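Thread: quick sanity check before group meeting

JM: Hey all, I'm pulling together slides for Thursday and realized we never actually wrote out the predicted structure for the chain we discussed last week. Dropping the sequence here so it's in one place. If anyone has concerns about the input, flag it before I start.
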Amino acid sequence: WLAWSWSDVANDVWRLSAALRRAGFGSDSRLAVSGHYSAYLLLVALAARLAGGSVIAAAHSIDEARLAGLFNGRAGYVFIDREDERARWLRVAERQGVDLVALSYRSLLAPHDGGVASASPRSLDLRAGPRTRVVWSEESTDDARGLSFLLDRWSSGSSPLAFPETSAAAARDRREAEPASIIASVQGLADLQREIATRFAPAGSRQRRLTEWALEHGSGPGANPVAGFIVKAIRRQIGFSQLREIVVADGAVAGSSGIDSKVRGFFAALEVDVVA
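JM (edit): ok, ran it. Output follows.
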């Protein structure tokens, strides 16, 4: 795992902000970020705010008309984690007559005029030493409201914020990180429920019936001790041994009614509160 201390964060944000200003980014500029949330994306977003500009989250699959409208005919800046997506944005911007500057983390923090590049993030073994209470997110900018939520939660919280290496590795990395809290969108919550359910035995099998019985009787008042033991084993298997809550980032908009009752009940059976 790669980790930034708060002093590393402050140093990188200051350097990124200075690099953005050198690239012409200022108080009337707008930065669009697109891709899966990561430490790199959040650091660039914080730097853009420090430089006085505004930051918006844009979906991966943004169409041409929407992309052109993001910048209202002005020059714009974009930070995208994938090179092929960055190239697609530039092609669309050219067709739409939008002057777009594509940014990357590495280019922004390259040595400038003989200066010193940012120190690399540090390596961290989550399995060594006391278990760290991690806040986890595997969302993307497809959930536009999540960006401000993540930035506010990260800057005001005391727990580390962690992300998977890639979206494809999310389940593996989640099991290793064993988060205490997960930040998800309403859609992300439903996707997580489906992903976990696919790890159960086939429907109708004896093992699946045992799992369903345990989930029904293993938590809450009067819980069956055997069922409770099985639920704890399931929690360990899916990386939920430390998990106590899933915070729905767009809960203020969606409210409790935006969360499927079956999804909420599924996580309740796993002894996880869904907080909207």
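AS: nice. The mean pLDDT is 85. The longest helix spans residues 6-22.
JM: adding both to the slides.
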